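Hi P.,

Sorry for the delay on this. The queue was packed all week, but I finally got your sequence through. Input first:
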Amino acid sequence: FREMEKLEITPDWYKKPFFSRVYTYEEAFEIVKKSNIPLFFKPTQEGNSRGCIEINSVSDLENVRDILFIY
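Then the structure:
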């Protein structure tokens, strides 16, 4: 899909993923408040799916606050 995005020929149903680097809980909180849910947080320091967290609400983010940045 990245090649298709460059050529602007994606299917009508396709929605380009939103990516952002987040360094603090406050940054994560602002993104969750402004974004359409669900969101998927993936550590940049780890491979595969280790440390990945799905966020479906602000309360989900609050529940994982202590583990969000350990990876």
